[in-house]
Fold each of these.
Amino acid sequence: MRRGGLPAFLLVAPLLALLVLSFALPVGRMLWTAVADRELADALPDTAAALRAWDGDGLPPDAAFAHLARELGAALEERRIGLVAQRLNFEEPGLRALLLRTARAAERLRDDPRGGLVALDARWGEPATWRLLKGAAGPLTALYLLRAVDLRLTPAGIVDAPAEEAIFRTLFLRTLWIAALVTLICIVLAYPVAATLAALPERLAGYGLLLVLVPFWTSVLVRTTAWFVLLQREGPLNAAAVALGLIEHPLQMIGTRFAVILAMVHVLLPFAILPAYAVMRRLDPALPKAAASLGAGPLARFLRVHLPLSFPGVAAGGAMVFLLAVGFYITPALVGGPRDQMVASFIAFFISQTPNWGMAAALSVLLLAMTGAVTLLVRAVLPGFARRA
Amino acid sequence: MTGRVLVGGAAALVLLFLVSPMLAILPLSFSDSEILRLPPEGWSLRWYERLFTSDRWLLAARNSVVVAVATTLLGTVLGTLAALGLHFGRIPGRGAILALLAMPVVTPSVVTAAALFLAYSPLGLTGTMAGLVLGHTIISVPFVVLAVLASLRGFDATLLRAAASLGATPAQAFRRVVLPLIAPGVAAGAVFAFATSFDEFILTLFLAGPGQFTLPRQIYAAVRDVWDPTICAAAVVLFLASMLLLLASEAARRRGGGLG
Amino acid sequence: MTRWIAALAALLFAAAPAAARDLTVVAGGGALQDHMRRVLFEPFARASGAPVLDQSYDYNIGPIRAMVQARNVTWDVVLVEAPDLRQGCDDGIFERIDWSVVPRDRFLPGGTTECGAGAIGWGVAVFYDERRNPQGPANFAEFWDVQRFPGRRALRMGARMTLEIALLSDGVAQADVYRVLGTAEGQRRAFARLDALRPHLMFWRGGQQPFDWVGSGEVAYAVGFVGRAANAIRGGQPLALRWDTLLYAYDYWAVVRGSPNRDAAMRLIAHLTAEEPLRELTRVWPINPVTAAVARDPAIRAANPLMMTNFTDRGLQISTEFWLDNGTDLEQRFTAWLNR
């Protein structure tokens, strides 16, 4: 007895509204923030319009100079100048000081804007400066996305960022590498656990599963904090190792890649075990027996019966581990060193430390693209995964 | 045979690895000194005392509970209604709605957190309980929907027809046929929503101001900013709460709820 | 049931402010704020007849931006760090200080900006354990000299302050540091200097870390916050603090734009920076006041030998302007350098 369309839709509508308002729209807005370029157009609208109308060759017409001088002065007076100063300074350090100095001199520039500006600072006579401003006139920009992969846009085209400033490619590669390593270790460790539990009678398996579910239900932060405490230089692990004579001096473990991998494996292992267990539980025990009766040894049974049949479950778990690992923030932040930070911590950095929402959004876009690509890849390689997820 | 023993042995080691950190934190939280040594040199309850008397930690505990309860209420109501509508109704784009529902779960939390922060900032919702609850709800509600849908799976519509033929109004049929059936699913979803909110960290990191710090957020501040051994006690408290929720979830599952 | 929901809603929206709001001052918390409350805020409340509430925050001005944008300002006076103050002033999230209420001439040089009145100073300098290392580096050139002074060093993680220190160690005069650091050649020079010391360097993020490391012997010589060093020395720790290596800056009192209590806020700032209340505060807590009469008072200087403002004439004032202009770029370079 299916109800009609409208009452049923009314039941779904509140949740739908929440999803749209509190998820879809914010995420959409963030995608937009990665490419939007509004600071200059907002603070200096006439200048922006003049720049957009200009073709970009040589220096812009006098009107642009006049608008710039006037609007900069007004922006400083009304204290709206911070955002455009920051935006331009991000693209080229030193522009903030230039804008502020020009804004303070606005009064004097009224009679002869063009001459006055160039006299105030030689940069106002350089085409490169004006081209940069034109590029920032909006409405869209590739600045943040390019920066996020260590590229720069120059008049000569798109070039690599100088080596002293290139951090993001390393960052993404490092994130992928850590995630891949953690996934591999989790799969290898999950296999024996899932296989053993699947072979146990239901009740015993339940107890064993509890040992997996307990960390699964414990907050990631709590588990990471536990490792933070355990791995301290004066912590229990070091003390035990010294007492047992394994090492002479306490090891520095916090702030190392080892700690990050260890803690991440610990946190993500249940995500690998549970799907693998679910699949292995459903395996027909008759199949390996049949293989044995046909003369297959234990290794052959494992490789040619068990492994192929349990693979979808293991792979599903592995894919989930990878997707979670790629977006990890807490664990590298708490137990890792400066060389272990992953993409997520830079997103957090650009949101809270230096408000540069364009960069935060650009990095988020790339992270989303990465996870999306991995999901599609897994879906294509494992037809069964789509059903399971 | 040796293969079996080896695999079993490996499994045991891994399981030990899984539970040992929390097992180690437990005695540390009762340690007398600030030095983290096992076994502890002396035993005392001072960290728990600090946890339950310090303004900051009490506020964090209060906030954790308030936000989790609000999230559970909001998420359970919205999620259950939506699940009922999705199951019983003929809604076009059902697949799209379910896909949208899954998005907060598959999106990396830091991206969701950043997006919500950017969207809520100009609205003045950052640094408020309301904004925090909204954020927590959005990542919890998919589980409620899934749990209730699961409990409705294989629901025999003839039961409703039978009730109608016996003279029951639709409301009565709902109350006495559907409601008992979905109750375990709703319970399981509610428990999962509560647990998700209670343990939630990264959304809270971005959206909460000092007045809305939850226990996980406060633990992070105590680790990162001003080292405070009270974190061991706080971690144990959170851990015990998770265990209670796990047991509650298992109980719901036995009754026919659960997430499959 | 309905009562329960109503109570929950009340709890949830407890963040919503009351219509007529009390004057609220926000600072960095801790023991200092407890003393400020007793010695500064409460006397003002008593004298003005209106309550003064105080809260603490973590020097993240994100919430301030949000409340100004949302036009729902719940903080009036805030203790702000120099770069945030400058940026915030340009962005219009702080009011211009009313200099007719707060006398501008009472402050040390560099102690006021358009939107800020100098509150307290802070700084970093080289320190080490005197017992373990009776002879320690007296300046940054010696800090770099691992032959004469072997052992690990600790610097703050980040470009700010670290790059200036690198140039100072290479013989650049204090007056020239920011000019040189503003050039490509100067920046290369600074990073090359850091490369030279890198095998012996550890970087700290939390203010307590260098003190833990020096205390445990993990690090021989470190650059750390002088306030903490002074507290440790007063607490009996045998630390040597090298004032010649001081880099310092001021934190300022600012008024949030759109505050409904703007006039009272200005009067509060006048009180917070007045001579008598600050004198009283230095008696109970070793602060570094920016009010000249207090900072230069010989009696107070004698009573507080470790007061930073005794030594600012030797030190380098960290340039807010420079870091606002070049901060993003240089911090990214620093991260790249760290990851090489």
Amino acid sequence: MKHSSFTLKLALLSALGSGVVTLAIGYSFLSIITQINYQRIDNEIRRLAYPKILRSHDLDYWPQFEWSLRFILGDEEARQFIVKVFDRNGKVLHVSPHRPGSLADKLSLTPGDSEKHIASIQLPQNPSLRLSPLEPAVSEQQPLFGIADVNLFRLAGLPFVRTMRQPALATFTTHGEAWRVAAMGNEQVTLVIGWNLAELHAELGRYRNAFLIAAPASLLLLFVAGLWLARQALRPVRLIAQTAGHITARNLSQRIPDTSAAREFQHLIEVINGMLDRLESSFQQASRFSADAAHELKTPLTILQGQIDQALQHAPDGSPEQGAYTNWLDEVQRLKAIVQKLLLLAQVDAGQLRATLTRVNLSELVESTAEDLRVIAPQLVLRPEIAPDIWVEADADLLNQLLCNLTSNAVKFNEQRGQIEIHLSSLSGVASLVIANTGQTIPCEDHDQVFDRFYRADKSRGRHVDGVGLGLSLSREIARIHHGNLALQNDRDGWTTFVLTLPRCPSGQPG
Amino acid sequence: MKVLVVEDEKKIASFVRKGLEEQGFAVESCARGDDAYTMARSQAFDIIVLDIMLPGRDGLSILRSLRGQKNTVPVILLTARAEPNERIEGLNLGADDYLTKPFYIQELIARIHAVTRRASGEPSSVLRAGHLTMNVMTRQVTVGEKHIELTPREFNLLEYLMRSPGRVLTRTQILERVWGYAFDPQTNLVDVNIQRLRKKLDPDGKGDFIETIRSVGYRFLKSE
């Protein structure tokens, strides 16, 4: 398809636009939800644990602390976190008894873990380890990877001397589960709370999945709706095009009705109708002009011809004046022919070529034309085959010009001792005249242009042969106003064949 | 015969008047439509030659009024336009014939003769010149008692010549009238057909009807 459908484009664009917007909204919705939940967890931890670390407690306070946490958060939430407390030397003071799954063991926070195990967790290198962007990681000069530092300090056997007042918060993934970890400490102990994010991530995943299913479905729906809408919206344009398509040079007075169209199209219709107004008036002007020009030219020609003729009649036979008058009359004749041709062309251009139809004996006309051919071109072999008594309804002048044009072409473009065939026959109400000549044929690629106004097969051919003949385009125009046609056939090598078809009328003299 | 020529172009009116007067017509001419209408109503003419485009009142309207008053005077319309509609309208209004400008005076004379003969009930279909007779309707030509077989072109050529006896006709003029506009004026069509006509009409070469005027054309002899 050369031109893409505007309707399709519109639907695709609308679907694309809404797709981008939906994606953006979905993405920001998901990230906002994520952030809100992280913040909630962080706040919760901070709210519940931080005040406890500000004061010194007995060493056996921490199991009680965990128990109170579980009491406050409830069973559901309780399953999601673990608590670990160790002293400055890294000795574990308390670990949650209810560790969900095997996870708590693998957390590197257990002091008894082997170095190898710890290395396998590789907290600092773990790409999913991120500190919450919402919170400064660790107070003072603590590097970002606070939790890891805690472990590394401990693993290196160094005393854990750093005191963290503000909780250090981080997210990291281990063994397929994500944890939000808060570490905080005072002079005595370091408290680490891990919050399992699996539940949260599962929930977020459900949101995401719902979105991933809903978005394409709604986009498809939007595309279909867009297609339908665009089609609906363009219906007035189709109607306008349809009406405009019916308007030709012959019925320029037609206008596009602007009754039911929307305001936006009303303007378009007005513009097109305005254009048609101008077109019609200029067409009328053009045809008036050609009529006026014909009148203006014909009046002086009539005078010239009348006066020269009068002088000719009174000139003595054989006198030089008589010869001169004859030449002048010939020139007047040439001017008349030119005016006639111009008028015909103007009428064709304005779509106003009309025929005065009378019954014409086509057989007789073709017979006469063949007879003339023998006189004009005695060097050519002429083979006429003319069925008698074929009558057509035609403008005798125009038909005569058409025949004359075809036969003079057959002579002009023939070879030295060439041939011309003229066949007139009739089949089921259609008279068909075939005029064929030998000589250089018209190249196949030119067949479509032969009937163009300015076509000439060989531009080097002399101008003088053109004379006052009409082009093939006018010949075809004449054939068509008689409800017939003129076509170029290419069925024989070395022959140029034109076929004129005209509707035949019943034989015999008009009653 | 009394002719009213209604034509606003003075020079056209002048050569028409001269041409007709040479043929023995009595000619009145008039340049304005309304005047022409008054004249046509007040005087009796044998024929009116009426231009369509006129100042005052156009030719078709004059024709319509005349026919409306049951005035049956023969009318030949002159028109510069090639509009078929105008011609058809004129004929429908009751014009007897029409002539498109530019025209030769002998064409007008021939048509005046044809129309007036038809109007007076005289059969216009037979043309005579000496012992040569042509029936335009049956398309038969006889010399004395002898029937002559002519091709359509030869027939049309002879008819044209017989309708303009005594006038010089140039080759191009004959070509235009008999063959149409589209022919190359350089052709020898006219000469060849004249030779054939002569041979058919007058095989012995005793009394030729057609006179050759060297490097000009031909003239059909005026019968006494």
